[in-house]
Specification:
The complex is a heterotrimer. Chain B is mainly α. Chain B is built from 19 helices and 5 strands. In chain B, 63% of the residues lie in helices and 4% in strands. The chains are: A mainly alpha, B mainly alpha, C alpha+beta.
Chain lengths: 191, 582, 690
């Protein structure tokens, strides 16, 4: 047993150096050389300022911005330092309350009546989902257009620019990057 | 199930099955002593490690020595992982200046990672320093997986050797698995993941000014967002390949920086089932009858496919209560629809359920959607897959040796039914094998049932249950199903980072790992010492559809009979209540 | 041959078994069977709960608790009954054997010189020791198993074989062994005692069938472990359901926690009680079937091993072929007519009283109407067969007529100046090739031709071998013949392989070869020279007519001395395993329906929504639970006949067999309880019990 423990310790040390030290350093080197943008979080830079990440959503509430998914992170939504889902079970009262509150907010902000795409009333898994469905974007077109005094078609054109289709034509779901869409809206109007 | 969803599942299974044969054959070569493909590169490193660690490559071990080596290595690993967590505050590569992990959480995590469970009681980005993530967690992702594979190889040698006292050398199996299989595959996968946006950096988190400020729970204005990053890709690659599942971030593979695109999702999914599926072929090659391996793979797929279909259908049909509120849950070209609570838009329904079913089939506890928020029956499937003993693909090595235990029971029953002392792959199965197989099946099962009972009977267990009604019960049942079967997946609403759960779940993980592993090694030893019986016309063939059906039946019946009452009081009654609430 | 058969439910056996069911409630007896012991404890617990419900308000009707308690006791009693009735059948067989074991007075010889025993003293048979020599005269019972050292006598062995015709026992050779308890009918025998009193075959046989010496077989132990594990799982399932239920009551805010009575009922229904209750009965019944086939097994292990046999070694003579070769053809040499040859052959065989010799006379008579001549007139001089010349024949009217093996006759005629014609040599070879034995006939220096002697393969044997092949058993014929002859007979009989020119050593090494290859070998044997091979074989059936040495070496003795009995033994071994496997499957499959009956009922107040699972639409929660418990008890009784008779075995491939049994006992096991429980529920509500 002593002999086995000795070998165990030696093997563990060797493998710790190899798989815990050399391996991640090697991957980091490859990553930073080959994919520096992606490896550092896909940051969106506006001049000196970091406006966010292509992959991390931000909270939006005004009528002039497109809203993303509900976020259950604490202590504030879209807290990218502590990702979290809501973990509401299908019958949890909180699920209903959150959905009702979102629906009320959407209506109050001037969204049209009618069925609301489900991703707008549910929290994402990570609390950081940067996307909404094209249907959810379309649902908000009228409100944003009115609020920004733009034509709906102009808004739709921006949506089109921020929409990603299925990857390689088949994988995943079509989706709209909310932060990039809102940044594009602001950029357009700033001109 | 939508057409686009079906297509993606089809592509996934197609690619997976296409990889089975080449990778399976390669692994067979690795464990039978030759690896022509990488010998030139890895060979010198392998020999260097043997020399440094004082391992005699040709020394064979009896099953007891082998078991002792596994235990010694797990003990050393446990101590190391515990120590790294407790001292991280004083160590470098800790840009967020995270303090030492609490003793109970550190215990739980140390058990979790050395047992290949990778249950996350903690939130990665808020608890673990980069150094801990690398030296403690990434290392264990490699070696606990390689240890599982080693034990499988020992069992396979039990079948292939006859009248032998030894079943191989643990250190050689451990090192070769790490060097020839996990490291090369990880080195390929990690950069691919980075290309999709998985972070790999030692920088501290990024401060981002929010486009639109928001308010926190106390009404204070929040204007910035700190984006946690870190050396994630290197860990994610091995976390999936080694069916570990412990994520870099709290929300695991639903985090956009851990799983940013549908393609990264596809690659990670592939990595999850890749080795467990290919091991079936490795098994077939090593026992000298490939059909035996295909039969086991077929049995796994036969269980996998319908369960995937049912959970997808449940999730796609959505939550009727949200429909009542006016949510549109119908799938269309412009939205995935269905039950989107706890799911990410880039994955939609099909990729979320495929992930949920694949990760709980394999003992990969990672999530890309929140299982706690699944519809009752949609959530029942992942829970039940774990309760089946993690044998449908299962953990690398551990899944297949678990399945072989069930095969032993199935062979025993069918042997009796055809009037012959049961034999599997030429080995007669006697009382000793049945005793060990029964123990290995019994203990994890008992741990789940008893652990759940203890938790819901105690105040400290009930305190941190998040959901109400039967769903709260499901949360606890899910946690123990996950820990007792070394999966690591969670109904994450349960506040499990308490001394109570850290301790009890830690115990469950130990039982789930070693109370299966040790009997398996004992069986390996016993089988190796037996004579090999040639196949005759009276031998029941174990590669036929009939045997596959029987094996599936045994797995399902044991799982169903053991957990039906518990499931009835959790997800099943919740489903009935949900239906009745309309 | 008469066999000791008892009807399945003989009145006497039935009554005894019922009484024994109660005796077996002794906890020490119950402890032997873990599954049933758990039920036993459950019965005690529910009885206590019933007593408690009489004095305190428990929220549960005491009649319901009583109902459950009673039926749990019935479950235990039914299991006891199954075992008792199997034992009863064994005892009935043993009793008839015991009758022959009356106290016998033995005449022990005390004189020392062999053949000159002058003194004898009467001692009780129980005082005999190994090596003692006794004399048994006509009308007396042989006091112990032994070896005949002197004398020839006819012995009535009906006590052990059921065969009424007496058999001859004589010193030397393969008919020298006698069994204690059998009776000398004529003449006398001097016997050397070979076993201690109480250990004779009769004693062992009685012990075997009575089950006193019954040890668990390897597969039975393995199955018992699996069943114990399942029992533990279900114990945990039931036990943890209590806290689950308490939590559920809190979570739903209604109803009452599941009661202990219901938990015990659930546990007993889920535990593999059906197979647990019948397990030992199946084992005993297997041994009974074996002794009904007039085979004594030295251990249950041997019976189980018989089911696993891969290779069957069979002696050619007596097993595959009729005991003797018969003349089938006369082939004359050129220049000789067939009749001439037949006549000479007939003459040469006149005094040959062997079966072969007789068959030559019979053939000559049939083909040419030849009859025995008046031997007086021609004054024949018969020359008997001698090992030196390897010929026999007759010298008459100055002519030497001889018949014998080709080489022997060739030597003979050459010495007289003759030769063996080529056409005869060709005929000899052709006969040998086709598996026959050629006998060449000569008159003086002239070779007249060849007689073909052939082994006659027993009718129906080919089909039996085909059956064995279907069962996955390889047959190997053992013969002293040359390879050519052996190959031809092997082909005709349809055996898979043969061992020609077999010596005891060759036999032994053949068995070892097969065993090294992992095969399980069965063989039959009777002679002393078979003993090493018998000892080596995994399943060795010694003929009761054989020598003591053979019997000691074997692990079974066939009292009928029928070499094809092995096939029957294999069947019994397989049946034994199949019955266990099938009932295990049935038992576990039953659980599904029981869940559907009990769970909705158990949570009727907490989660009425679970009523959706009440597929059988049972009349009330208490009736549902009681019906499941009653079904669980009754199914044991219903399956007792099956346990005793064994699941039918048909020689089809393993896969086919598995498919059939899975369909009947697996799928059937799923469906039957749904119907059974529903019917019981209807009856209960009809009589107003629920």
């Amino acid at each position: 047993m002593i002999q086995q423990l000795r070998t165990a310790t030696l093997v563990l040390i060797a493998l710790t150096i190899l798989t815990g030290g050399i391996y991640p350093l090697l991957v980091t080197a490859i990553a930073q050389l080959a994919f520096p943008h992606q490896a550092n979080g896909g940051l969106i830079r506006q001049g000196e300022r970091v406006a966010g990440s292509e992959l991390i959503g931000q909270p939006f509430s005004g009528p002039h911005y497109f809203w993303g998914r509900l976020s259950a992170t604490v202590p504030f939504p879209y807290n990218a330092a502590a990702s979290s889902g809501s973990n509401f079970g299908p019958l949890h009262p909180g699920l209903k309350e959150a959905a009702e509150a979102r629906i009320a907010a959407l209506r109050a902000a001037g969204s049209p009546a009618g069925a609301i795409p489900v991703d707008l009333v549910t929290a994402s898994a990570s609390g950081l989902d940067p996307h909404i469905s094209p249907a959810a974007a379309e649902f908000q077109v009228q409100r944003v257009a009115v609020s920004r005094r733009m034509s709906e078609d102009a808004v739709r054109e921006l949506i089109g620019q921020s929409t990603e289709g299925r990857q390689l034509g088949v994988l995943g779901e079509p989706r709209v990057n909310v932060l990039q869409l809102n940044l594009a809206l602001d950029r357009l109007q700033a001109k | 199930m939508t057409a686009a969803g079906l297509l993606q599942v089809g592509i996934y299974l197609g690619v997976l099955l296409a990889c089975v044969k080449p990778l399976g054959s390669y692994m067979a070569k690795v464990y039978s002593g030759s690896a022509p493909l990488l010998e030139g590169v890895v060979g010198p490193l392998e020999r260097l490690l043997y020399r440094l660690c004082g391992v005699d490559k040709s020394a064979e071990m009896t099953w007891r020595q082998y078991a002792l080596a596994v235990l010694a290595f797990s003990l050393a690993s446990f101590i190391a992982v515990y120590a790294w967590q407790r001292t991280q505050g004083w160590l470098p590569l800790n840009p967020q200046a995270l303090p030492a992990v609490s003793p109970d959480s550190a215990f739980n995590t140390a058990v979790s990672f050395t047992t290949n469970t990778n249950w996350q009681g903690y939130g990665g980005e808020t608890t673990m320093s980069y150094l801990t993530q690398m030296l403690a967690l990434t290392v264990q992702n490699f070696v606990s997986a390689a240890a599982g594979m080693a034990v499988l190889m020992a069992l396979i040698r039990g079948f292939t050797r006859h009248t032998s006292h030894t079943i191989g050398n643990f250190w050689v199996d451990l090192l070769r698995g790490t060097l020839y299989i996990f490291l090369p595959l990880s080195l390929v996968l990690a950069p691919l993941l980075v290309s999709q946006g998985v972070v790999q950096t030692f920088a501290a988190s990024h401060e981002v000014r929010l486009l639109q400020p928001t308010v926190d729970a106390e009404g204070k204005k929040v204007t910035t967002q700190a984006i946690a990053v870190g050396p994630a890709a290197s860990q994610i690659a091995i976390k999936q390949l080694g069916t570990n599942g412990g994520g870099f971030f709290n929300v695991n593979s639903s985090h956009p920086l851990e799983n940013p695109t549908p393609l990264s999702n596809f690659l990670e999914l592939l990595a999850i089932l890749l080795i467990p599926a290919a091991l079936c072929h490795t098994f077939g090659e090593l026992v000298g009858d490939r059909r035996q391996g295909w039969a086991l793979l077929a049995a796994m797929l036969v269980i996998f496919a319908p369960l995937l279909a049912s959970t997808t259908i449940c999730e796609q049909s959505g939550n009727p209560l949200l429909a009542q509120l006016g949510a549109d849950q119908a799938a269309s070209d412009s939205q995935p629809g269905g039950n989107m609570e706890g799911k990410e838009n880039r994955f939609g329904i099909a990729n979320s359920t495929l992930w949920a079913v694949a990760t709980t089939a394999a003992s990969n506890g990672s999530v890309n959607s929140m299982h706690d928020s699944y519809t009752p029956l949609g959530g029942l499937v992942p829970m039940w897959l774990m309760q089946l003993g993690e044998v449908v693909f299962g953990g690398v090595g551990s899944g297949l040796y678990g399945m072989l235990l069930f095969a032993i029971v199935a062979v025993f029953l069918s042997g009796l039914m055809v009037g012959r002392t049961p034999e599997y792959l030429g080995k007669k199965l006697g009382a000793f094998e049945m005793k060990m197989a029964s123990l290995a099946i019994l203990f994890p099962c008992a741990m789940v049932l008893v652990g759940t009972a203890v938790a819901i009977s105690s105040d400290s267990g009930r305190e941190t249950i998040f959901n109400t009604g039967p769903h709260g019960f499901s949360e606890v049942l899910y946690a123990f199903s996950s820990a007792g079967n070394n999966n690591g997946s969670a109904f994450a609403g349960l506040g499990a980072n308490t001394p109570f759960y850290n301790g009890l779940l830690g115990l469950s993980m130990l039982v789930g790992r070693f109370w299966v592993m040790l009997p398996v090694l004992a069986i390996a030893g016993s089988l190796a010492s037996k004579k090999s019986v040639p196949v005759g016309p009276g031998t029941l063939p174990t590669h036929t559809p009939l045997f596959v059906v029987l094996l599936v039946a045994v797995v399902i019946v044991v799982g169903a009979l053991s957990f039906f009452p518990a499931l009835a009081l959790g997800p099943i009654v919740e489903h009935l209540l949900m239906a009745a609430a309309l | 041959m008469t066999r000791t058969t008892t009807r399945l439910f003989d009145r006497k056996i039935l009554l005894d078994a019922i009484a024994a069911s109660f005796w077996k409630l002794d906890p020490r007896v119950q402890l032997r069977n873990p599954v049933m012991f758990a039920v036993y404890l459950g019965s005690i617990l529910t009885t206590i709960l019933w007593l408690h419900s009489l004095t305190a308000t428990t929220g549960e009707s005491s009649s319901f608790v009583l109902g459950v308690a009673i039926w749990l006791w019935f479950t235990v009693l039914f299991a006891n009954f199954a075992e008792a009735i199997a034992e009863g059948h064994g005892k009935a067989q043993a009793a008839s054997l015991k009758k022959s074991r009356t106290t016998v007075v033995a005449r022990k010889l005390t004189g020392s010189a062999p053949g000159k025993h002058v003194q004898s003293e009467d001692v009780p048979a129980t005082d005999l020791k190994i090596g003692d020599v006794v004399i048994v005269k006509a009308g007396e019972t042989i006091p112990a198993d032994g070896e005949v050292v002197e004398g020839v006598a006819s012995v009535d062995e009906s006590a052990i074989t059921g065969e009424s015709a007496p058999v001859v026992r004589e010193s030397g050779g393969d008919r020298s062994s006698v069994t204690g308890g059998t009776r000398v009918i004529s003449d006398w025998l001097v016997i050397q005692v070979r076993t201690l009193p109480g250990q004779s075959f009769l004693d062992r046989m009685i012990a075997m069938v009575e089950g006193a010496k019954r040890q668990k077989t390897p597969n039975e132990i393995a199955l018992a472990i699996l069943l114990a594990a399942l029992t533990l799982i279900f114990l945990l399932v039931a036990a943890t359901l209590l806290p689950y239920s308490i939590y559920s009551v809190q979570a739903s805010g209604q109803g009452m926690a599941i009661s202990l009575t219901v938990l015990v009922a659930l546990f007993v229904c889920l535990a593999p009680t059906t197979i647990g209750a019948l397990l030992s009965a199946i084992g005993i019944a297997g041994m009974n079937r074996l002794s009904q086939a007039n085979v004594i097994a030295m251990s249950g292990r041997a019976v189980e091993a018989a089911g696993d046999v891969d290779v069957l070694l069979l002696d050619k003579t007596g097993t595959i072929t009729l005991g003797n070769r018969q003349a089938t053809r006369f082939i004359p040499a050129s220049g000789t007519t067939e009749r001439e040859l037949a006549e000479a052959a007939h003459l040469a065989s006149m005094a040959d009283e062997t079966a072969e010799g007789r068959s030559i006379a019979v053939l000559a008579k049939r083909q040419f109407g030849l009859r025995g001549r008046e031997l007086e007139r021609i004054q024949p001089h018969f020359v008997p067969f001698s090992a030196r010349t390897r010929m026999s024949g007759v010298t008459l009217e100055g002519h030497e007529i001889r018949k014998g093996a080709a080489e022997a006759v060739e030597t003979h005629v050459r010495s007289l100046g003759g030769f063996l014609p080529e056409d005869v040599r060709a005929a000899v070879q052709e006969i040998a090739r086709s598996g026959g034995t050629p006998l060449v006939v000569s008159r003086d220096d002239l070779v007249l031709g060849v007689i073909e002697l052939k082994d006659i393969v027993k009718g129906g044997i080919k089909e039996r071998f085909a059956e064995l092949r279907q069962m996955g058993i390889k047959t190997v014929m053992i013969t002293g013949d040359n390879p050519l002859t052996a190959a031809a007979i092997a082909a005709e009989a349809g055996v898979d392989d043969f061992l020609a020119e077999a010596t005891p050593e060759a036999k032994l090494s053949l068995i070892r070869d097969y065993q090294r290859g992992g095969r399980l070998v069965a063989m039959t044997g009777d002679g002393t020279n078979d003993a090493p091979a018998l000892a080596q074989a995994d399943v060795a059936v010694a003929m009761n007519s054989g020598t003591q040495a053979a019997k000691e070496a074997g692990n079974m003795v066939d009292l009928d001395s029928n070499p094809t009995k092995l096939i029957e033994i294999v069947n019994i071994g397989k049946q034994l395993l199949m019955t266990r496997g099938s009932l295990t499957t049935f038992s576990i499959a039953n659980d599904v329906a029981k869940y559907f009956a009990i769970l909705p009922a158990a949570f009727a107040t907490t989660y009425p929504a679970l009523k959706a699972f009440d597929l059988m639409r049972l009349s009330s929660p208490s009736s549902a639970i009681l019906s499941a418990v009653i079904f669980n008890a009754l199914v044991i009784i219903a399956l007792v006949p099956l346990a005793l008779k064994g699941v039918a075995y048909r020689p089809v491939g393993a896969a086919q067999l598995l498919r059939n049994n899975l369909l009947v006992y697996g799928v059937g096991g799923l469906g039957v309880p749904f119907i059974g429980i529903k019917v019981i529920d209807l009856l209960l509500s009809a009589v107003g019990l629920a």
